[in-house]
Amino acid sequence: MSEKSQDKTKRKAINAITKYKPVYKLSFVIEDLLDDIEGDTEILVNQLPAIKNRISRRFNNGVVIFWIKSKYISKLGKAYPLINVFFQVKPNYKKVYEELCDLMHPVDIKIYTSNLTQEDNERWCKAVKKQKLHNLESVYNCNNLRRFAVRNINQDIYK
């Protein structure tokens, strides 16, 4: 029996987190979700390839993993875009923020950062394995959005 597309995505994401062992995570969201979310989301979708390219080139001293998802806010009654970026090496968060602001202008963004332990990575993998993947088409208004990408594989610090 062949593997479903969603199962394949989950498997690849879990394998990447397990293999590359990221220790830093940056999440970014659109700052003002109440004001023109559709237009802001369109800018985000259009800039995603540039965001992936610029972040992975600028921070090329380790593997960078991008995970695109959505987060539901009950107060708003809808889901909003959320991008997670995992790093093997601690990035300069100020520079990441500047790059993102430059690419996302005029949309204001907010970033959240966290250090990851092995347990955090294992918990993330378990959650991805058991949960259903988010319906990105309904949030991003785009039907061919890649939710997962691994960059700078040749810069793996654990090779």
Outline the secondary-structure elements.
Blueprint lengths: L4 H16 L3 E7 L6 H22 L5 E10 L4 E10 L5 H12 L4 E7 L2 H13 L5 H5 L7 E4 L8
Helix pairs in contact: 1-4, 2-3
Question: What features would you describe in this structure?
Answer:
By secondary structure, this protein is α+β, with helices and mostly antiparallel strands. It has one domain: Alpha-Beta Plaits, CATH 3.30.70.1150. It has five helices and five strands. It has helices spanning 5-20, 37-58, 93-104, 118-130, 136-140, and strands spanning 24-30, 64-73, 78-87, 109-115, 148-151. It has a five-stranded antiparallel β-sheet, sandwiched between helices. Strand 2 (64-73) and strand 3 form a beta hairpin. Helix 1 (5-20) runs antiparallel to helix 4 and helix 2 packs across helix 3. The longest helix has 22 residues, at 37-58. It is globular and about 45 Å long. The relative contact order is 0.26.
Summarize the structure in short.
With 159 residues, this protein is α+β, with helices and mostly antiparallel strands.
Task: Name some characteristics of this structure.
159 residues; alpha+beta; Alpha-Beta Plaits
Helix-strand sequence: HEHEEHEHHE
The termini sit apart by: 33 Å
User: What class, by secondary structure content?
Assistant: alpha+beta
CATH class: Alpha Beta
Based on Cα principal axes, name the global outline. globular
Tell me the major beta sheet.
5 strands, antiparallel
Q: Strands of the largest sheet, in order across it?
A: 4-1-3-2-5
**Could you tell me the strand content as a percent range?**
15-25%
The number of domains: 1
